[in-house]
Amino acid sequence: MAECPGDDRAFMTKGDVAYARIRTLILSGELAAGAVLPQAALARTIGMSTTPLREALRRLKQEGLVELDAHRDARVRPLDATEARDLLELRSALDPLAASLAAHRRTDADLAEIAAALAGLEALTTHPSAAQLESHHRFHAAVHRASHNALLVQTLDGLWVKTDRYRRHALEVGRSEADRHARATEHRLVLEAVRDRDAEAAAERMRRHVETSLGARSADRLADEGAGTDRSTT
């Protein structure tokens, strides 16, 4: 990787590079949930030895994205109904808080950033690109930053990234035009509440948005699939 002055990548170790690359492959869906990760082949794919690769896999295990067994075999952690629920519960509490704080604390520059992100939103397809998902992250991250609570921003950013695998899972069954329009309307209403400094409305509109989100749909789908499996084994 070329080193660029002022570019943080110039200070990344090989383990950092391997971690970033594999994490991207997992979150993008290129490495599917449950996929086995043959370490020698994966090291060749990312162009480095197995030593930094193993370091990266240990970090990804700590994040809950990879499983490692005693024999050092690795696989992408399967999607999990409990994790999907946990992520949804946290976002249902923290996203409305961020929106409420943003309505109180936002600056004109914050509002301009949120509006620009709203204008750049791309509709999510059945197999969304990284750019499409990032456009939605950009909008929500702009709202989070407008809260001017650094710990809250950091926490929500981590939750957002971990939820991307579940968003992709929800999109596998497609979305109606009415559903896409409803989500777009919710985004606009959040912006308007933050603009008007209406903290109560901002929190409520964000709460509704999370409750109807792709993460919520994935949690419901995984719960239904789990219930179906339980019935079939009784």
UniProtKB/TrEMBL annotation:
Residues 12-79 form the HTH gntR-type domain. InterPro entries: GntR_C, TF_FadR/GntR_C, Tscrpt_reg_HTH_GntR, WH-like_DNA-bd_sf, WH_DNA-bd_sf. Residues 203-234 are annotated as: Disordered. Keywords: DNA-binding, Transcription, Transcription regulation. The keyword Magnesium does not apply. It comes from the Bacteria. One of its GO terms (molecular function) is DNA-binding transcription factor activity. This is Transcriptional regulator, GntR family.
